[in-house]
Amino acid sequence: MEKGEQTPFAELPEALVEEMLSKSEMVGESLYTAFKEIQESKERIRRQLQDENILKKDAEV
Fold it and tell me: How far is CA 56 from CA 3, 4, 26, 39, 42, in A?
């Protein structure tokens, strides 16, 4: 980074930046868990939608 160039965090209080960074791992883990649950339930939901004739192929729409 060139001298004089500022980061987006340059004007934020250091304590706030530290707090945000310390919570970023927790947020990442929470997002990972949510995406994993969606991925694991995808087939079950797809089957349920097909059984109820809610999910259609593009050509059928």
Answer: 57, 56, 38, 20, 16
Establish if 53 belongs to a structural domain: yes
Range of the domain at 56: 30-61
Q: What is the pLDDT of residue 3?
A: 55
What's at 5, amino acid-wise? E
Asked whether residue 5 is assigned to any structural domain, the reply reads no
pLDDT tens readout for residues 5-57: 677 778 888 888 889 889 999 999 999 999 999 999 999 999 999 999 998 88
> By the 8 A CB rule, do 55 and 49 touch?
yes
